[in-house]
Amino acid sequence: MKPALPVCFVLGLAVGLGCSIDRRSDTFACVKNSDCNSGRQCVDGFCVVEGNQPIDAAPGSGSGNTCPASCTSCSTNTAGQKTCDINCEQSDCSQGGITCPAGFACTVECNGNNDCRNGVSCGSALSCTVTCSNDQTCNKVTCGSGACNVTCSGKNSCQTVDCGNACACDVTCSGQQSCLDVTCGHDDACPDGANGCSSTLDLFCNTCQQ
User: Fold this and answer.
1) C-alpha to C-alpha distances, 77 to 25, 73, 138, 157, 198, nearest whole angstrom
2) Of 27, 61, 138, 147, which is most buried by a Cβ count within 10 Å?
3) pLDDT digits (tens, 9 = 90+) for 8-35
4) Which DSSP string do the residues of 67-114 spell out, in sequence order?
């Protein structure tokens, strides 16, 4: 564990080739009934035939085949993992902290001013992709043992990022006064005075890949 030096601007491309998260298919995603084809209704973010459970929904913590309450929508990626999308344009992320549910591959989009201000925790998630794209977002991001990909492009975003024991951790810092305190989990701090972490810099730092 060690603090990084002050923005691996090239990480975005490198990370995409590393431990990227497969996003869910939007085929059946919806916000309201009018988003669905005739004969279907919008239930828990998915277009379903009346009386049926959501199509492509991943099993959650509640009854039936629904998402955990913290997720905007759920699905399954090509690796067969349950996915959870937390989109702050569709839910209020300004109150309390954001916690990715255990056993899910999470995508967290903190895209409004002060979204996720009370922190994002990925401690029990399979993996996390966290985007902090507006001012004062993601005061603290804490990774778990899975792959962790954090992008901090908003002003004063990601004041603290802790990679913890993530098998691969990539942190990109391009926002003004972003990433004041970054702790990389392996020997993967960005070189040349840049601020962030890269799982591609050392042969052994990315243990997600076999």
Assistant:
1) 8, 13, 25, 28, 24
2) 138
3) 433 333 333 343 333 334 455 677 777 7
4) --TT-SEEEE-TTS-EEEEEETTTS--SSS-EEPPTT-EEEEEE-STT
pTM over 0.70: no
CA angle 97, 98, 102 (to 5 degrees): 130
Supply angle C-alpha 126, 110, 135, rounded to 5.
Answer: 140
Q: Which residues contact 4 (CB under 8 A, 6 or more apart)?
A: 171, 179, 182, 183, 184, 189, 190, 195, 196, 197
d(CA 115, CA 34): 28
In angstroms, the CA 22 to CA 8 distance is 22
* Spatial CB neighbours of 95, under 8 Å, sequence gap ≥ 6: 118
User: Residue written as tokens 């409004």?
Assistant: 112
Q: How many Cα atoms sit within 13 Å of 45 on the Cβ side?
A: 23
CB neighbours of residue 36 within 10 Å: 18
